[in-house]
Write a structure and sequence with these properties.
Spore Coat Polysaccharide Biosynthesis Protein SpsA, Chain A, UDP N-Acetylglucosamine Acyltransferase, domain 1, 11-stranded parallel β-sheet, elongated, binds uridine-diphosphate-N-acetylglucosamine, binds calcium ion, cell shape
């Protein structure tokens, strides 16, 4: 098979985004746009992938890591100049080169394959991927002759009125004979409205040399959408979200209102789980089968077992094992592990804590830096006091212990199995097996105290 290479253009600043972040790093459904592009490129197994970086080069390289080689385009002089920076890496090689922009996150490997096929079929030196847009504003226009053969590409800013009326657009994806590409790039000038070296000019240059140039028109304009503005970013996110949600539904997940459910790419959800409207599932979240996630829940990097119920709660970097439940209005902060059949009720916060199976933490409680055993009952309004102003300290509570309501358990402290803490206690010392700790002022009743107080007459 002929060697295949890919160049990803990712050096531009993206002025129209008005952002400190390099354009290609803006996320769509949880991943930078350029990561989506590279992920699809990887599926066509290129022999080499070169990413052209410039603005935010360090951040782009950090985001993509060793998955691609990098070449720096120090000054952004246009897409043609950007591709030419790849010459030291690719210039001497025989094969086909796919050029794709880092700001077209919806394109798929399937389309790239179709482009390669078409390119080979036509025996072309260059094939541009085109689409028909309802509103072609901003895109390069495909100029064909009377026979329908591609002549050149004209950028929006350089287009005559007639050319601007054409609605077949350049998607910014091309397949080239590699050596022909680099030879032609040396002939590209910058005498145009933007004073840039346009990659698009390569098409016209090759055509004039009598080379075979072709254009493959893809059916779905939406897939080719380029993101230059925040508006387009929102549109791309909507399309990607629709794709992701459709896949989950195809796998047996019920999304009550898929238009309001935000699921990052890569999130895993088991069959027969129901996700209510307005739920956010982010990062590396995994949810098992038969779960229920209620409205206004936000899960980030959460690992959720089977048959778990989550109502209006936030879970970050934490684990909930099978048959447990949480909410409404509770918060698992990072590094919490909730055992099987655990009940976390309303208005609870758990941070860096392990809670054993069957334990109940029902109401208005803070569990920070603690290890709780199994079958514990934690009453209402309990505080695991973990911070002394300088350091965090740890609390252990054994199996079958009982922590009465409104207790403060001041770390570091150990409460043994079957120990009992009376309501309202402030516990500062360890409690042994089967003991009860009571640490609060004794109640004093003053007889007939009422008589000593001044009163309004009671008519
Ligand atoms: C480009 C095409 C246009 C096409 C559109 C599709 C050119 C001249 N125009 O326009 O025909 O319809 O894409 O989305 O190519 N880049 C660099 N270095 C540079 C300039 C750009 O790496 O010096 C990168 C950008 O980061 C971006 C890509 O090239 O990923 C395209 O650049 P952009 O400025 O977005 O081009 P468009 O105006 O969208
Ligand atoms: Ca663009």
């Amino acid at each position: 098979m002929m060697s295949r290479y890919t160049i990803i253009l990712a050096a531009g600043q993206g002025t129209r985004m008005k952002s400190k972040l390099a354009k290609v790093l803006h996320p769509v459904c949880g991943r930078p746009m350029v990561d989506h592009v590279l992920t699809q490129v990887e599926q066509i197994n290129p022999d080499k992938v070169v990413t052209i970086v410039g603005h935010g080069a360090g951040e782009v390289e950090a985001a993509l890591g060793k998955r691609t080689e990098y070449v720096l385009q120090a000054e952004q002089k246009g897409s043609g100049d950007a591709v030419l920076r790849g010459e030291p890496v690719l210039g001497d090689l025989d094969g086909m080169t796919l050029v794709v922009s880092g700001d077209t996150p919806l394109l798929t490997a399937k389309t790239f394959e179709q482009l390669f096929e078409y390119h080979k079929e036509k025996g072309a030196k260059a094939t541009v991927l085109t689409a028909v847009a309802d509103d072609p504003t901003g895109y390069g226009r495909i100029i064909r002759n009377d026979l329908g053969v591609v002549e050149k590409i004209v950028e929006q800013k350089d287009a005559s009125k007639e050319e601007a009326a054409i609605n077949e657009i350049n998607t910014g994806v091309y397949c080239f004979d590699n050596k022909t590409l680099f030879a032609a790039l040396h002939e590209v000038g910058n005498d145009n409205a933007q004073g840039e070296y346009y990659l698009t000019d390569v098409i016209g240059i090759l055509k004039q040399k009598g080379e075979i140039v072709s254009a493959f028109k893809m059916k779905d304009f939406e897939e080719s959408m380029g993101v230059n503005t925040r508006g387009a970013l929102a549109n791309a996110t909507r399309v990607m979200q629709r794709r992701i949600n459709a896949e989950h539904m195809a796998n047996g997940v019920t999304l009550i209102d898929p238009t309001t459910t935000r699921i990052d790419i890569g999130v895993k959800i088991g069959a027969d789980t129901t996700i209510e409207a307005g739920v956010l599932l982010k990062g590396q979240t995994e949810i098992g089968e038969d779960c229920y996630v209620g409205s206004h829940s936000e899960l980030r990097d959460a690992k959720i077992g089977a048959d778990v119920t989550i109502t209006s709660s936030t879970i970050e970097k934490s684990v909930m094992h099978a048959h447990s439940n949480i909410g409404p209005m509770s918060h698992l902060r990072p590094n919490s592990e909730i055992g099987e059949y655990v009940h976390i009720g309303n208005f609870c916060e758990v941070k860096n804590a392990q809670i054993g199976a069957y334990t109940k933490v029902g109401h208005l409680t803070y569990v920070g830096d603690a290890t709780l055993g199994q079958h514990i009952n934690v009453g209402c309004g309990v505080v695991f006091v973990n911070y002394d102003g300088l350091d965090k300290h740890h609390t252990d509570v054994g199996d079958w212990a009982f922590v009465g309501s409104n207790a403060n358990v001041v770390a570091p402290v150990k409460v043994a199995d079957h120990a009992f803490i009376a309501a309202g206690s402030t516990i500062t010392a360890d409690v042994d097996f089967h003991d009860m700790a009571i640490a609060r002022a004794r109640q004093v009743n003053k007889p007939n105290y009422w008589d000593k107080l001044p009163h309004e007459p009671e008519n």
